[in-house]
Structures are given as C-alpha cells and as structure tokens.
Design brief:
single chain; alpha/beta; 2 domains; 20% strand; binds iron/sulfur cluster
Length: 311
C-alpha cells in the first residue's frame, strides 16, 4: 500500500492501474487525505540527526510537507483494523513521533505530525490522525526520552555482546499479531536476536570472500628460474615486486626486517599479502631467492601459465 500511494507523487507512474476494487477504494480515500504533489512535498524524507557520542539517529518519514510555516510529517500506517491505531493523545507520547519532531524543530517553531492510518481488513476508509507539537513541548519530552531510553541504550552498547540475550519473539503476537511476521527474519528465528546477527555476519563474510575472489587477477605467465629472451614481454622481477609488500608489512609491525614480524610469523603474512594483491601480467621468480618457496605456493595458483626453467 505504501508504494502504491508513493506512486501518486511520481508523474511517471500510473497509480490506479492493476489494482483490485478494494485497493482502488482505499487508495482513492487515502489520497484525499494527503497534500497534492508539490515541489515542497517530499517522499521518504531523511530526518536523521546526530546524537551524543557520535551516534546517529537514523530515520525516514513517508511524507514531509514543507509548504506551510508549520510543516507536516506524515507517516503511513498500514494495519489489519483500527483496534490498536494511535489517537491524538497517543501521538503526543509516541517516541517515533517525538523523534521526527525533534529532527525538524531546529528550523521551525512547531510541527504537525500525522499518521495516515489504513486498515486493510475493515470497510472503514483510511483516516488521518494529527497533532501539532510546539518546540518547547518536544524539547522537554525528548530530554525525558533521552534519560529513559537512549542513555541506558548507549550504556548497554558498551557491554560485551556475549552478555546480551535478547528474546523478543513474544512481541510478535502482541496487538493481534505483528504485521511483519510473515517476512520477518527475527520472528522466523523465534525472536533469537543473536541468531539473526550471527546469520547476517556469516552472510557478510561470504559476500566479502566472493568480492575478494572476483577482484583477484592472475599472472598470465609466471617464469620460474627462467625468463623470456625474445619478444616484447617484460616480466616483473619477484624480488622487486615483493620489496614494497615487505616494507608495508614491516612498517605495520614496527620492525626493520620481515623475519622479525611477530616472532617468525613473517612468512605467513607475506603469503596472506600475496593472496590479496594485484599481480603483474608476467613475473620472473628465482627459486634461490629468499621467500621464493612461500611465494610459489601462492603464485602458482594465481598464474594462468607457469614456465619452469631447468637448472
Ligand atoms: S520480531 Fe518481527 S514479527 Fe516480531 S514483532 Fe518484531 S518485527 Fe514483528
């Protein structure tokens, strides 16, 4: 329903096409409660602001109408029925409403905050519940919210994550059942917040690995203990190539020689670096060189062709 209404503000979209009769009636009634498209009516307006200690409070509202001296923030709320919809009084206490208001009250004296309430399982048409809030009121309420919610949240942020056991599955059944339940990952995992985080981290790692693999190039031809004598190929010498890598590794470890990196772990770090760096098209390596055995373990796998010289 959100996107159907949003299409109304896009001159390139046809709003009423392909809707059922019921949807059509809902959309028509909803649109009557909204401002006409205008250059000062913004969709998905970013109302983020910075909070204490570099924390960003991120939020977006569905619609921001800045045509009047008192702007209006409108959020679309889709629900089964109006049983648990907020009324004007609820809006004055609602933390989301206050955070929206707080985001814009630096620029204006007062703001109107509205819920466009759309119930999908009743015959009643959508309705708009609205309240105007003054800067002083929001300031006072916001300070209370900081004490009650944000300061404790920031404090708990510093706790080691293993100490947190959040189980919120119970909430999915409240107020007649959460609207997002069908596609909510947290609900699917029985409200086990940590399982969702673990899953997300694993997916992130997998993605990273795929990206790294995608970026890695290959040496067209690696010459081991030999070098092309004819033709225009100008291979890079491994000894030159590795110099820059060793300097960077030594600088990072704060030592002068790669052999001193973390008490003998230098070879391992070189191998890791060679697995990640961009390689030249052609390279010559001499097996009598320092680090050649470590390098070959990686470079042979990262070469399309290897020419082995005989000594
Ligand atoms: S966990 Fe998901 S389904 Fe449960 S209340 Fe939260 S958003 Fe709704």
């Amino acid at each position: 329903m959100h996107s159907i209404i949003e299409n109304y503000y896009d001159p390139n979209k046809q709003v009423m096409v392909g809707l059922t009769e019921k949807e059509l009636n809902i959309v028509k009634s909803a649109i009557k409660l909204l401002p006409l498209p205008h250059e000062k009516v913004y969709l998905e307006r970013d109302l983020s602001f910075s909070y204490d200690e570099g924390v960003k409070y991120s939020q977006r509202t569905d619609l921001y109408d800045a045509r009047e001296r008192v702007p209006e923030i409108i959020d679309f709320k889709t629900m089964k029925d109006f049983r648990f919809a907020l009324d004007e009084r609820d809006l004055t206490q609602n933390i989301q409403v206050l955070s929206y208001a707080n985001a814009v009250l630096g620029e204006v004296e007062a703001v109107r905050v509205s819920h466009l309430q759309i119930a999908l399982e009743v015959v009643e048409p959508p309705r708009k519940v609205s309240i105007e809030l003054s800067r002083d009121y929001v300031k006072e309420k916001w300070e209370q919210a900081e004490e009650r919610f944000f300061k404790p949240m920031l404090k708990s942020r510093r706790l080691p994550i293993v100490d947190v056991e959040a189980r919120v599955g119970k909430a999915c059944e409240d107020y007649g059942g959460c609207w997002h339940k069908e596609h909510c990952e947290l609900s699917r995992k029985g409200g086990d917040f940590m399982a969702v985080i673990r899953d997300k981290n694993e997916k992130k790692e997998e993605k990273k690995e795929v990206e790294i693999k995608k970026e890695l190039n290959k040496i067209s031809c690696l010459f081991v203990d030999c070098a092309p004598m004819k033709g225009s190929i100008q291979p890079v010498l491994f000894s030159d190539f590795i110099e820059e890598i060793l300097t960077a590794l030594c600088e990072k470890a704060g030592v002068e020689d790669w052999r001193l990196i973390e008490f003998g772990k230098g070879r391992g770090f070189v191998a890791i670096a060679l697995r990640k760096v961009t390689l030249p098209e052609y390279m010559v390596i001499n097996t009598k060189e320092d680090l050649s055995s470590t390098a070959l373990e990686v470079l042979v796998g990262r070469s399309e062709n290897v020419v082995w010289g005989s000594k």
